Each structure stands twice: as C-alpha cells, then as structure tokens.
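Can't paste images in this forum, so I'm doing it all in text. The chain is below; anyone willing to post the predicted structure tokens underneath?
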Amino acid sequence: MPPTTEEFRFAEPYELPQWPFQPPPELAQPSAEITRHPIVIVGAGPAGLTLACDLASRGVQSVLLDEDDTVGVRGASSRGICYAQKSLEIFARLGLYERIAGKGITWSLGRTFSGADEVYSFNLQTDSCSQQPPFVNLQQFYLEWYLVDRILALGLTDVRWKNRVTRVEPLPDGVRIHVETPAGNYAIEADHLIDATGANSPIRTQLGIECRASRSTDRWCISDVRFAKPLPAERWTWVDAPFNEGRGVWQHLMGDGVWRMDYQMPEDCDTAEISRPEVAGARLREQLGPDIEFEFVWIGPYGYRDHLLDCFRHGRILFIGDAAHVVSPFGARGGNTGIQDAANLAWKLALVVQGRAADALLDSYDAERRPAAQENLQVTSRSARFLAPRSPVEHRLRRAVIALAARHPFARAMVNTGRMSVPNAYPAAPLLPEGAQSVQNLPLMLDGVPTTMSRLLDGGTHALALAIAPTRAQAQALQAGLGDELPVRLLAVGGEGPLPTLTPDPALARQLGEPPAGRLVLVRPDAYRLAGHVAATPDALAALLRCALALN
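Text version of the structure:
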C-alpha cells in the first residue's frame, strides 16, 4: 500500500519579507505630464536586482518596477541555488558576498554516480586563486532579499513594488512605459528600459520579438528537504539513478540545513502527480532507505524550454537574464549568466547616462553577452542530450562512456552531467579587437597594503591600467600624460617610479596573460582583461581607453 500523506511532515513555511506599496509621484501629476528617467528596470529577480545594485554602487540612479511586493516565489521554493565564482566576485564588489557566504553552503567537491557505482569525483578548488570559492549554494529568495537590502542601503534606486508594466511604447529617443498599480495607472518615460522580467517576458511578447524556443520541455520535480541526520555536504549526481527509473538526480545542500533534491521526469509526466507528498516521499525513501527521517520544506514541478533572442538590444530596450535567454540548469549556467549580464551592462549604462561614453558602448552588451549565452546554450544542450538520450545509439554511447570512465581517467571528461559555470571569454568585436578574458578576484598587495582586484575596481566606474615593470621614465610619462577626464586608475606591477605599485605575483601574471616588461594591460570595470597589451605610453593608453570604453 502506498504511504499516506499523513506520514510526511512539512516544515513551517518561510516568512518572506514584504515591502509596502508606495503610490508613485506620477499618480499626483496631470496626465499630460510624463516624467522622464534615465534608466528604468522591469523585474526584481536576480538579474534586475543585480543591475540596480551595480548601478547604485556606481552612483547612478534608476527606477525598478516589480509587480509583486516580496522576493522569490510565494511558497518559498528554492529555485536557483548555485552561485558561481564570477557571480560571487560581483557580489563581493557590491558589498553582499559575506552575507551570502554566511548563510549559504560553500562547496567545491562533487561526485558522479551511475547506478550504485561512483564513476568519478572532482574538486573545483584546485585551479582557483580567487578570494571567492568556486560555488556557494543558497536559496534564490535569500539572494534576492539580500540584494534588495543592499539596494535600499545604497539609497539611489526608486524601488516600486506592486507596479505592473502593462505596455511599452518605443520612442526615437527612449521608451514610454505604462504601469498599473493598486492606486491607479500612470505612464513614465525612460532613456533606457531594461527588461528583466524572466522567461515569459510580457514586454518581449508585446513587442513581438521572437525568442526561438526549443520544441521540447525538460521536466523535473524538486523536493526541498531537511533530514534528521545530515548527508555529506557535496554535490552528488546520478546519471541514471535506479531509484528514479534510470533518470538523472541531483543532490545539493543549501542554507538552513535544507537539501535540494532534483529528479528528472518524463516530458509527458503529470506534474501534479509527481509533486504529491506521498509520491515525492516514496522517491526519497527509495533513494535513501525506508527508515530515513525527514521533513519537506517544499515540493514542486519544474519545466523549461531553451530560448535565445537574436539580439539583446532593440533600440532603447535591452534584455537581460531569462528575458534574453534560457538554458538548461546543468552546470548552474542559467541564473549566473543573468547576473553576469547585469554586471556587463551596468558600467556601460553608467558611462553612457553620465555622458562619458558614446551610445555604441551599449551595442557591445549584445556583442559580448549574446555569444556568452549562445556558448552556454550549446554546452547545456550537450549535457541535456547526455542525460536524456533520444535514440538507442545515444543510449549505447552513454553506457560506453560511463563504463570507460570508471576505469580510465581520460574518459571522465566525457561524462557530461553539466559543465560547471565559468566566466565566458568575449570574442573579438568592434570595441574588443582581440577579445577579452575574465580576471579573478585575486588577493593583492598595493604599496605593501593588502587589497583585492574587486577593491581596486570599487568606487565609481573606472578601468585599471596596469603598467608591467615600467622604467622610472615610463612611469613618470604615464603619470604626467594621463588626463583627469579619463575613467581609469593607473597602477604599476613592479618596476620603478612614482606610480602606486602592485607586488608582482605569479597568479597575477597568469591572469594578465604573462605580458612582458614595458607593456600595459587594461582591465575593464567588470573585471574583464582586454586580450593583448600595448606599449606603456600615454598615447597608447588613451587610444586603448577610447576604443574599449567608447569614450566621448
């Protein structure tokens, strides 16, 4: 006889914060008067909140509209949980990493199983020199909560809860936005509108922008669970779990001692049936034994279809996060990509609205982040095919790879349960003649004082110009020839002369591409290093900055 619902306990639900609706000032204005704002962001998910927070950290105001008055999903499902090193480095610069790390679970060790046998394990910490770990697991509603708190503390964002965008009108020099609230409707205009409303973007739908969604839907059932006895704090993955009818399973620890259990389901499954407590509980007991003691925090189905916009910029409207792209969750490349979209766009918007850079700088958002999303889509699609083979040939290939991996290390890289999220390199583009690579948040010494790469980029919007072992004459010429109008901080790495000096370090040299003495490397405000290097002269530096930052 199947277990009854009464056998399963549910934890007390989370009490999510709620923020009060405040009637916007536009409601008191005559309808003929429409206020213009430089930047309006729609959607208070991870991407929209990160963008608002990043702008505020650079001293830039914005309006943030959201149709709800809380964070996460009512019912408090975990949703996105796995935040990668690049995202954590962004949060360190924004001043909320410590809070995330304090509540979340830091991990780097993962194990992969086929049936009951461990195929291989990995440790992501081995190649890292960042101040941040490879990953922290934390329920998405906590991340959003901490971002809202930080935004409110910075005090430059007009956060408007219970403000639902009903229609947008593209204008030659901006966008008109129609908004519905509990106190009435109003319209505002924006120089730039950022759509962060998610995979089912109503703005994208209203504008008739094709998102090229995949034809099939991947189905999962998520169970957020507390166990009486803790499990190992590692990422465990089953390629073909015998306790899930030969389909994939993920097992992660999150904040508050809650485990996230993801079970792959057939595409045609009954989502209500797979989410019933007695069905979810039976799955857990088949996996962990009949005597396992646990309580549910949340159970729910999850489905997605990949999509990718042809262009992330449409005039004065820019799309970020799931509004622009949706990829399979394997390797944590979904939410992290949206967070990194926001970090790429924030400094560009800051320079443009401050009149320091040309509008062409915003075109580089699409030129850089769409290829990143395309790469992530390709990587995660391969993982999805490995985990859900679509033909007998693909099934035989997977069985052969797993058998080889158990005996031969070379085959382990072929066991594709999700290539973990890493910062995307940017291809050559008009503002990046040789492309760009992400720089980790290294611990550094500046004139004998400890610092980090993130701290060097903190405070306004500026690039780092790093002169490699300059002579005294080179350092003096750079210092004398650098105008105050350029958004750059000039430092030396070793060498002689009057410049503030970073202590040379092998890890820093590797991150900068091993440039020779007498050359200069540029790190952008988003901690991306331009590929290549130039002569350490004022003219070469000015030309590099004007190209890379599209300066006026």
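The chain has a mean pLDDT of 91. The first strand starts at residue 9 and ends at 10.
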